[in-house]
Amino acid sequence: MAAINERGFVEVSADDLKRLGQREPRLMAKLDTDSERPQVFKRNDLNILPIQNGRYAIFKDVDNKLYFPFDASLEEAEIEEYIGEVDIQSFDSFRTGAGLGSESQVIDFAFVARLLQYFSGCDSLFLTIRGRLFSGQFEIVLPSGQRLDVSNVQIEVDAGYESIDSIILFEAKIGRRSDFNVRQLVYPFLQWSKRSKKKIRSVFLTYSNGVYRLTEFAFGSTMGDVRTIQSKAFVINDSVVAKIDLSDLLRATSISAEPSDIPFPQADDMDKVIDLVKLMDQGSVSRSAIAAFFEFDERQSDYYANAAAYLGFASRNRDLGGFVLTDEGRAFLGIATRSQRTKAILESLLRRPTMRSSIEFLSERNFDLPRVAGSDLERIIQSKTNVSNPATLARRARTVKMWLRWILNNSEIIQRERR
Fold it and tell me: What global pTM score does this model have?
């Protein structure tokens, strides 16, 4: 730390990282989201960047500029219904259902539908860049002002499209992110800025439960000097919300017992639960695989997998060492549209006594979520489950409230008098 405090950074080798961390150095230094940063970095305001093949710079980053946080205005942007110029259903190689299975499929689907052309304002785009390569040489300026030469480091571009006057670089993720490491966009931007005289544009794209969120960024002279140019959210040939007759759905949905072998959910992002169900389509999924896929802590892997199990879509298979789809989960993956998936989720929630009572409580307050207090939900949870610890009740009530918010954001609820 003395050297870092004096110089602002220190160089370390891959061998140093492997000796200290007993893991693959490239993975130790990847840290694509702030939640992946080790505690020693967070305590000491440190971040890390590759600067040569096998060499890294650990540097002071007091304001954590290396990570760009998505604020509420970006995350809650109004979702637009985009009608593609091409009939996507005519392509047998694109699977419908609960979602696309890889970043490349997500990008290819959006390109064929011409969403990328619409967002970028470039009618004619050609895929010219994809995958990993080793960079040339370029300079970066750390947040504290030190200049470092970068050369021969591995960079990856999920897709790069070229037009007559621009190169547009896309970084894609399945599942929403609360922040991301700007290295993922800045290094490719600097690489192609050195190689081309065309305008280089950088877009971060996330795909979750059928929603594309695209944010275009511009970069200043230092790492972390980032500004947003535009940010939009779309569904392709689908409805943003489901029209739900809650009275009919309540009558048609029978109540099951609260699961005795599954913890009550603590997973706030319902869309991420849906994305996880899609991931399980590949077979048994371990805690570490879930954490790697969503770029979060392994503890959250259990939270989200248990939430999928609570909905009836997954179960733990100890013989295979992970979570697998149930028959209900496989049926859910076959649902073709976002609005139909919303209805299926609501049906699953109404089968659980706690969630049914919470939804009815929201209905009694005319679907005005601010009128539903955390203490109200804690009382419902405590009356229907064996959860009793006050701190645990508060965390579970937060999840319930976030799920109620998800229902309101994804539904147009028709409420009639019960017969």
Answer: 0.89
